[in-house]
């Protein structure tokens, strides 16, 4: 049933994209003095965010192709899997909640570049002398190649028990590891990822959807989401300020990766993510000069939101 629904939704949106070259005019109503809009397939459900530019207004197929130029070359590991329609279909679920639609066009473009910067860095097979440069190889993978373990943590055997014979290695646009993360994500998306983690390597829309859900959702209670710290919805507390956590791209890395990336000084892993973001800003026509000052862009001196238990360290 789930797969049929995803197929139907994808077909409907592809048809809409094919037939609609101009921005859809929103339906508008005012509720308790607040303007709410519905913009059809891409931003549905009477939201203030649907009154703004939607993603397909400013980020189109040719730009996606520019960002991920090498993903379908013969040496890539997910040839034919990732495409623009899968991304925009997944994004449509979250645009009414502010994904790429929170504010003015510039902020929205920067958020899409930021999200895809994370995705590109985590799915890249680029290296220093790769054709087109190391930043042109995002979306090269859709799963971890030759995993060294099955990522089953028995601590969660009562809430997210491991399915016998199933491996919970990295899959998706922001790769998911471990049974508890597959279980939590599956519950949120109403897809049985705990028993069928392979769905993320079979369906690109679902793979993007899981990544956008992670971007929009706090990893832990009493923490902000990557979306909120990036667009400015999050207001740092006194403790955050002491920990040098400020709104912006740097803190989005802190939210998503904690001590795996942040608080480690000028690290290669952090700089790789930042480099993808800056590269995508340039390719989208925004320009890296809009990324902000150094302390907003990095998390090298930030105290991590979370410290990874030894069992939960992802590759």
Compile the SSE list and pairings.
Elements: H1 2-19, E1 27-31, E2 34-38, H2 55-58, H3 61-67, H4 84-92, H5 105-122, H6 179-189, H7 199-202, H8 204-216, H9 226-231, H10 238-242, H11 249-257, H12 268-283, H13 294-297
Antiparallel strand pairs: 1-2
Helix pairs in contact: 1-4, 4-8, 5-12, 6-8
GO biological process, one term: chitin catabolic process
Pfam families: Glyco_hydro_19
Disulfide bonds: 152-162, 262-299
Folded structure, characterized:
There is one protein chain. With 315 residues, this protein is mainly alpha-helical. The protein is 39% helix and 3% strand. It has a two-stranded antiparallel ribbon with strand order 1-2. A hairpin with a 2-residue loop joins β1 (27-31) and β2. The model is unreliable at 310-315 (pLDDT under 50). It comes from Hibiscus trionum. Residues 63-289 form the Glycoside hydrolase family 19 catalytic domain.
Backbone structural class: mainly alpha
Strand arrangement in the largest pleated sheet:
1-2
Q: What proportion of the residues is helical, as a percent range?
A: 25-40%
Record field, number of beta strands = 2
Taking the sheet with the most strands, its summary is:
2 strands, antiparallel
Tell the overall outline. Answer: globular
User: Element order, helices and strands?
Assistant: HEEHHHHHHHHHHHH
Radius of gyration: 19 Å
Straight-line distance between termini: 33 Å
Strand fraction band? under 5%
How many helices? The count is 13
Short description:
Helix content is 39%, strand content 3%.
List key phrases describing it:
single chain, 315 residues, mainly alpha, two-stranded antiparallel ribbon, 13 helices, 39% helix, 3% strand, disordered C terminus
